[in-house]
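queue> pop job 88
queue> type: inverse folding (structure -> sequence)
queue> payload:
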């Protein structure tokens, strides 16, 4: 599924939005508000569909049929981006990936295994790919401290996939190291704490922590992610 706003000035930015486990491209397009923001901010959005509503994230047994059958979702999403770029004028320095849950985990896998993306924005996700040769990429993670499926403090979560990842703050610190970042600064607004770090090459690494937040896409997430993406082209 592709959303191309009217009045685009070429070349445009591109956001790849990855649905969660049991989700779909149609559901992600309907649920997260990317089309409306793309219309006002003039960028393109693509919504790929994973096989049997899941993504193979190259680790942790996640998730479903794609993992069991070793489906090459890195190759598929790479091909999807290439297909969009053949048909729409896209700025290669402004290609971004975001996703919810299994889709957020997949965005880390893409950062670990491609050089396509200037920034990723995992929501309620973690990193399960071994990520042996990570590529410097800007990262904004959004996560609730009470997420039962992908625990903020790491370890095995509830739910179908039993996702078992590292503590979210430790993962964020790892990406600060990869991206050669300065020490982060923190700001709190109610239940939401935002940690931001400036990094080499105009990259950035940020973590938005939602106090007592569960396994869901927060209302503010889409706008915050686009603001971060727009500020961090390659």
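queue> result:
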């Amino acid at each position: 599924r592709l959303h191309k706003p009217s009045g685009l000035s070429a070349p445009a930015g591109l956001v790849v939005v990855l649905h969660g486990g049991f989700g779909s491209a149609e559901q992600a397009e309907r649920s997260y508000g990317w089309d409306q923001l793309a219309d006002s901010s003039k960028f393109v959005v693509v919504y790929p569909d994973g096989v049997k509503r899941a993504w193979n994230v190259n680790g942790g047994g996640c998730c479903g049929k794609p993992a069991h059958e070793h489906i090459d979702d890195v190759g598929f999403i790479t091909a999807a981006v290439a297909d969009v770029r053949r048909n729409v004028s896209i700025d290669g320095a402004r290609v971004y990936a975001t996703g919810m849950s299994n889709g957020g985990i997949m965005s880390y896998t893409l950062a670990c295994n491609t050089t396509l993306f200037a920034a990723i924005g995992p929501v309620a996700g973690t990193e399960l790919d071994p990520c042996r040769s990570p590529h410097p990429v800007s990262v904004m993670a959004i996560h609730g401290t009470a997420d039962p499926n992908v625990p903020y403090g790491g370890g095995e979560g509830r739910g179908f996939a039993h996702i078992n990842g590292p503590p979210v703050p430790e993962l964020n610190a790892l990406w600060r190291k990869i991206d050669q970042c300065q020490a982060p600064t923190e700001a709190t607004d109610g239940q939401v704490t935002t940690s931001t770090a400036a990094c080499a090459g105009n990259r950035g690494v940020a973590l938005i922590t939602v106090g007592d937040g569960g396994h869901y896409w927060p209302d503010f997430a889409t706008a915050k992610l686009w603001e971060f993406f727009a500020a961090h082209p390659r």
